[in-house]
Design goal:
Radius of gyration of chain B: 13 Å
Oligomer: heterodimer
Helix content of chain A: under 10%
Number of strands of chain B: 11
Order of helices and strands of chain B: EEEEEEEEEEE
Number of helices of chain B: 0
Distance between the termini of chain B: 34 Å
Strand content of chain A: over 45%
Structural class of chain B: mainly beta
Largest sheet of chain A: 6 strands, mixed
Shape of chain B: globular
Largest interface: A-B, 25 and 23 residues
Structural class of chain A: mainly beta
Number of helices of chain A: 0
Largest sheet of chain B: 7 strands, mixed
Shape of chain A: globular
Number of strands of chain A: 11
Distance between the termini of chain A: 36 Å
Chain lengths: 107, 113
Amino acid sequence: KNEVEQSPQNLTAQEGEFITINCSYSVGISALHWLQQHPGGGIVSLFMLSSGKKKHGRLIATINIQEKHSSLHITASHPRDSAVYICAVGGAQKLVFGQGTRLTINP
Amino acid sequence: DAMVIQNPRYQVTQFGKPVTLSCSQTLNHNVMYWYQQKSSQAPKLLFHYYDKDFNNEADTPDNFQSRRPNTSFCFLDIRSPGLGDAAMYLCATSSAGGYYEQYFGPGTRLTVT
């Protein structure tokens, strides 16, 4: 069993829909990271959080430390949100990555 | 302003011919990472430097080496590339590890012919 599990692995939705991507982890962490990777592109850090909730534009990330669970939400989804979203948990010096969620938003 | 720069963006090498990938950063971060990412897979950490301290992952092949001559630069050397080494190689930096935001470079896509 992977230390970081994401669900779903693939998600297709229509423009405007509310999107939720889930991440569960089994290791102790210092912080949890949500990353975005567009096809053929580099990785961009969206959020880093160790408690509660963060919001940036249409993106919201939450974490429940007791349940070892985090969610990434996208409101009013747009085709440009199509990308792979990766959850990673941070230890002392390095990250442990989930397998990623491939999101496709159709116009 | 580019913060983590990787050169070249695309590299083609022949089977068995040594190749070096370059990463530089303008963030003055202590930690630099090299990841290998194959199609539709999560990045796989090869090794990282905390300052001058080198940390090799247990499953990183001996074929892969790294150098960090100063804070700004880090190199990935592949001594004898095989077809299985074709991948995207990502460099990332962090001020002090997993509790801090990681900044990724654009990656170098390596093709082995």
